[in-house]
Design a protein that fits this description.
about 250 residues, 6-stranded mixed beta sheet, 6 strands, globular
Length: about 250
């Protein structure tokens, strides 16, 4: 039996994949994981029952389910960890630093009150390393209103599940590597684009850096989102065509 041509096969596979996507992006507790897991098992059972050649799907599901169940448990302790902060990954205001930091096992969102030395280092595009930290861990905020950005989902797509509020720390600034230079260059571009007129600054940040670099242009981003044309700010065939054209001209000469 050539099951690959059966409409029912595609329907069940679609239901199974939808259930797995809910498992990864919507499940917030063991209860959610358990209920969605039952649906995944049900659709897997139907596939194996009706289409004999899909037993491998059950093994794949068991692996995915085990990974997701393991991810539901807080994995890391940051005690004794060195957290790396790049200047282009955080927002710096006079009394607070917030953004994304890196540590040995991944990334975190963080916030803390900076010293004047840290503030000066970040404002000059330098990388900062925090160690001997004392901290509190909390969940990332979910959306409370319809249409509001769900930061928990946004950061989950980047592999970040926790917000770490750093209360005490020691720090050093570090010498540059190739990766550090990339972050430094990105930081300088952010600073350069903020000198542009408001609308041009918005487009430069979105199309080149992939982020809204200025809080003053948030209303423009909201307008694009409300009009349903936010996809115009994504990488498209036109952008790829421009990149390949520039590369081809450089390579030609």
């Amino acid at each position: 039996m050539n099951y690959s041509k059966k409409p029912g096969f595609y329907l069940l596979v679609a239901f199974l994949l939808i259930s797995i996507s809910f498992l990864f992006f919507e499940a917030k507790s063991y209860w959610h994981v358990g209920v969605i897991g039952i649906f995944c098992l049900f659709f897997s059972f139907l596939l194996i029952k009706k289409f004999k050649h899909t037993k491998l799907l059950l093994l794949v599901f068991i692996i995915i389910f085990s990974i997701r169940l393991f991810q539901s448990i807080p994995l890391y302790s940051y005690q004794g960890q060195v957290i790396t902060i790049y200047p282009d990954q955080v927002k710096l205001i006079p009394d607070y630093v917030s953004g994304i930091g890196k540590f040995k096992n991944g990334k975190i969102t963080l916030g803390f009150k900076p010293t004047s030395a840290i503030r000066n280092a970040l404002s000059q595009g330098e990388k900062v390393l925090l160690f001997n930290i004392k901290y509190e861990v909390s969940e990332i905020e979910q959306a409370h209103n319809f249409g509001e950005i769900n930061y928990r989902h946004y950061y989950a797509s980047k592999g970040i599940k926790e917000l770490v509020n750093i209360q005490n720390y020691q720090f050093i600034s570090s010498s540059y590597s190739l990766i550090d230079f990339y972050h430094y260059l990105r930081f300088k571009l952010e600073r350069y684009f903020t000198t542009f007129p408001r609308l041009l600054s918005f487009f430069a940040g979105e199309l080149i850096l992939g982020e809204n670099i200025n809080d003053d242009t948030q209303q423009i981003l909201d307008n694009y989102r409300n009009l349903g044309v936010i996809h115009l700010l994504s990488i498209s065939g036109l952008h790829v065509g421009i990149y390949t054209f520039v590369i081809s001209v450089i390579c030609y000469y």
